[in-house]
């Protein structure tokens, strides 16, 4: 799974421009599924049929990553930009960004009277062009760049860009490759535009009409010095979401996940996230409502170029998800 | 001129009847059929049986305004904004209230009665009121009910140099262009949709899109232009007089790449001046339409307006013509080549 994780974190795919990462994932999974579709929004939907007696399960991991979009090129060749998804201007100074074609720039800042004045419109991207014409040969208005990619593995933990949510994608890919035949119909969806407001997952759910759904995404931790209090720790296993700002996990799903973890000796922890949301937010409200939950991969420094996760946690998430989709007892979930 | 009529018509969010009736009358002979849905959206179509992509053109009929929420014992009307209004610009502006268009003026405590600290801040909605020239609550109640809405009474006016001022260019410019396009013939099904309640949260367009189930959507809008002193070029958003603005991304939608590419090609092939909207602030009907059902590829074309969401904003009629031309030529290309 780490090999695939390295591959997917290295691929370009900001919200709204998921083509490259979609093609990569398509190639990885096409031999392991019964059907592959791309819908109007660009979601990649992989279907693995069950025997007809089970449930229709939608799994969602988002392919898109955060980035910056160029809005203006000035006469001296400097680029102004806006953010795509939750990018904090305060963490951007002197970061390198890379465009789809490999063009790299670094972020500079105007002179400031105070650190508090560090707002988005004080920042610019410098791609080393001398003037507007030279800049325009490399970059156009509307082009998007992402953090320059770097994958680090010390055998225990990964430090990389885009673990949000390429680690979720890696879990789904690994699941499709390794799961046994199941009674359930599995719709593994690699969604688009999560970072700008869980947009892809909602339309995918409308098309699929699942019986129940699980999102797979990263969550924060409370285990660093003076961190905001949160009872999730790196290395303590798969995090079973109870609630975040966008959804309350269906109690039956939450309980079933915990039971499966206990039965199979998979480490797990409960997660309450006070900020943020996952694709479950949009899926649960589709049509007449879809019982939904989230399996979270504990991560530090989310939305930075150096997110960190624990390799054992990642495997726990994959193993728990496999047990879930293979289960023939999912009807139990609906008994609250 | 159609635009002038539309600008002068009233239609605060949820009270779009007057503007809807006007548009209906203007376009009913140009289209195959038209109807008003349960939310109040006006939906007209042409070529329903034709091959080719089913396109939804959308502009919102509603405008920002004020809703009467309390009548004081002195007969003054307290109000809350309907949609986003800059409260700094309200004092002393004339308004018309309710279907009978009772005239009134927005008042506030006189400046010599204000404390020093109060003078430094814009007056809050709670401290403003509408004065309709009556003496007490009883008299006021003869003319006004709670829940009535007030609309700015400013009229369309030409300034010369192709620039005009008026209220509600956001989004009557879109309505006016779509109404004009009903005269054209396209070799594909086209839905001309005039939506309600955009200003209070993109409410009409989402139900309209659900009903129509289009293959793609083009949203025509009025957008903010900030090409004014004390602002730097990269913060202009858009500039008046430099052609229609294409949205790359805003708070509610990322424009569909293929539609955007098509629009740019059409503009460049035909020498139509255009610009990009250089802010991702704000949102519009495309946000709601694009998420309808299984998703609808959508793009936004906007007309730059200075002083938007106020009693008077300013546009350039040249921009209006260019926007009309761009949309028309894009639709012809769409019928020929698809998205």
Describe the model.
- The complex is a heterodimer of chains A (336) and B (339).
- Chain A is α+β, with helices and mostly antiparallel strands.
- Chain A folds into two domains: 2-65 and 161-334, 3-Layer(aba) Sandwich (Aminopeptidase), CATH 3.40.630; 67-147, Elongation Factor Tu (Ef-tu), domain 3 (Beta Barrel).
- Chain A has helices at residues 2-10, 19-29, 132-138, 163-178, 199-208, 251-263, 280-283, 311-326; strands spanning 35-38, 44-48, 56-62, 67-73, 79-84, 96-99, 104-109, 123-126, 144-147, 151-153, 157-160, 185-191, 212-219, 238-243, 268-272, 292-300, 307-310.
- In chain A, the strands form two sheets. In chain A, strands 1, 2, 3, 10, 11, 12, 13, 14, 15, 16 and 17 form an eleven-stranded mixed beta sheet that branches. A six-stranded antiparallel beta sheet of chain A has the order 5-4-9-6-7-8.
- The longest helix of chain A has 16 residues, at 163-178.
- Chain A is globular and about 65 Å long.
- Chain B is α+β, with helices and mostly antiparallel strands and 339 residues long.
- Chain B has two domains: 2-63 and 167-337, Zn peptidases (Aminopeptidase, 3-Layer(aba) Sandwich); 65-152, Elongation Factor Tu (Ef-tu), domain 3, CATH 2.40.30.40.
- Chain B is 27% helix and 25% strand.
- Chain B has nine helices and 17 strands.
- Chain B has helices spanning 2-8, 17-27, 116-119, 137-143, 169-181, 203-212, 257-269, 285-290, 317-337, and strands at residues 33-36, 42-46, 55-60, 65-71, 77-82, 94-97, 102-107, 129-131, 149-152, 157-160, 163-166, 190-195, 216-224, 245-246, 275-276, 298-305, 313-316.
- In chain B, the strands form three sheets. Chain B has an eight-stranded mixed beta sheet, sandwiched between helices.
- In chain B, helix 1 packs antiparallel against helix 5.
- The longest helix of chain B has 21 residues, at 317-337.
- Chain B is globular.
- The two termini of chain B are 33 Å apart.
- The A-B interface holds A 15-17, 39-41, 43, 69, 71-72, 74, 80, 82-84, 121, 141-142, 193, 196-197, 199-200, 202-204, 206-207 and B 232-235, 248-249, 252, 254, 257, 260, 276, 278-280, 290-297.
